[in-house]
Amino acid sequence: MHVNSTEPSQQRLSRTNCRKILAYSLILENISEIFTARKDTPVLKGGALCIAAGPDGKISFAGKTSDFLKAEPDFRSKYAEAIFDAGNRAVYPGLVDSHTHLVFAATREDEFAMKSRGATYEEIAAAGGGIINSTRKTKSAPLEEIVRQASKRLEQLISYGVTTVEIKSGYGLDTESELKLLTAIKELKKLYPIEIVPTFLGAHAYPPEFKNDHEGYISLINNEMLPEIKSRGLAEFADVFCEEGYFSLKETEKLMTAAKDMGFRLKLHADEFNPLGGTELAAEMGAASVDHLEAVSEAGMKKLAENGVVAGVLPITSLFSRLPFAPAAKMRDLGVTVALATDMNPGSCMCGFLPLAASIGATQLRLSIEEAVAGITINGAKSLKRDDRKGSVEPGKDADLVVMDAETVSYPVYHFAHNHCKNVFAKGRLIHSN
Fold this sequence. Notes:
The protein has helices at 7-16, 65-71, 75-78, 109-116, 121-126, 131-140, 143-159, 175-191, 214-232, 249-261, 278-284, 298-307, 315-321, 328-333, 354-363, 369-375, 378-383, 411-414, and strands at residues 26-35, 43-44, 49-53, 59-64, 83-93, 95-97, 162-168, 195-203, 237-242, 265-270, 289-292, 310-313, 338-340, 401-404, 421-426, 429-433. It has two domains: 7-93 and 392-433, Roll (Urease, subunit C, domain 1); 96-383, TIM Barrel (Alpha-Beta Barrel), CATH 3.20.20.140. α9 runs parallel beside α10 and α11 packs parallel to α12. By secondary structure, it is an alpha/beta fold. The protein has 18 helices and 16 strands.
């Protein structure tokens, strides 16, 4: 995504972005800059800006306060209860973490110690660690404990400004346990006023009992897990880990075809260590995103661009697990939409601080600041099929907003590894203050 601020576009936005409504749930004023995430005008500057939201929690205006006054000259007296002073600070759209594994029952710092001594992902898995380690612990944990642990992690994400998050299952690997994890995600949706997108990742690894019976496990997923999950409405997306030692290209196609036929939207873990062709397959099948891509081929990148599939780049995982960074700038140059996410999980990335992904994007992935912030907002929303109402500041979108303790949009990316989030709004309602 190429984004460049232009004054004519800013003036045009100010003239056209006010809809007449009867009341306001939020009037956020005294804003120094707004990251709109719009392609024509990604950043509004100049201070004295405001954002207004109607009683439906949708943005009705975003621009200069002087322009808002033309439509609502008495707003400060008429809607005093809706006014929130941003304190001459910058405002982002609510952040979108489009790839997480938040529901699990135990951490794996013992494996982290092995990693610190040089053990690879594959070596840790061969020693009984990795996904199977988390599966053993998660199967024995009651639902209430999984929800309690995940709630703590989710609250941390909200405190960083995240208002939309995708959460995968995948640490159950049997029908009962996968349903338990997806039910935990459903419980989180009841508890928190943010957008939570559930993804079924039963094809995360082969459980030990199916180590030598891949067809048996694929049959279990396709003929038992997927139909039951669909009947209960527990997942929107289905995902597969396509990688050597996990699910082959042929196995991935069989799983994705069954999921698509049942009405699931598709995502894919692919090309993390080896370019097996998963990216090309997922693009041709109309997946919403293909994630990881540290080892993606140029053919795979072109397929993403040709089919409008989002590249889900996970730079904190590369940092944490000593992996190469995905070629985000090259994908951008080829016309691929690049989202940045955390991949928060107990093994390869125990970090849910999404703004760090934007900072790495700007420093290591050779993205501009605007492209990096787009990666954790509008492009993340696109990878979750939510860009019609999430990820940008413009009329008609949900008033998911983050007031940053900074005067410029650039500062939170520049002053990295520090939480600059001051206030978080979801659909025009204040849900968190730091």
